[in-house]
Amino acid sequence: MAIQLTILVIAEVLVFQTYSVHDARFNWATHFLVALIAAAVVSLVVLEVRGAPGPRFLLLLVLALHLFAMAPDLVFRAGAPHAPWMDVFLGHITAHYLPGGDTAWLAIAILAVGVYVLTLSRWLKNKADPSDVAARPTS
After folding, report:
1. 25 is in which domain, residue-wise?
2. Average pLDDT, rounded, for the chain
3. How far is CA 78 from the centre of its chain?
4. How many domains, the chain?
5. What is d(CA 135, CA 51) in angstroms, rounded to the nearest whole number?
């Protein structure tokens, strides 16, 4: 996990610097938070479907999703205008119009990560104490 964290931090610092060139640092935060939310949702779905934690390289998934979300900015820098089709990239355009902006995205990201951590904690507890699973009512 330490290697993943190192890669993530170095890459994110470099990505942040690319946004500072055209004074658009707010784009970094928006797309990073959306990527973090998407990674939490993917992790939650994997945990629920497979019944095991995953993906294995979670921090690299966050980085990959962030790069995916910001891909239209590379096209923009090449001279193409932003367009609605770019929302395919994790809501690239629409993400900037959420009421509350990055503060709202941060709140959603904290909630999404919190739900995943709570679900993972319960899964780990149930795995460690099988009698707890048997005591739960089935639905």
Report:
1. 2-135
2. 88
3. 26
4. 1
5. 18
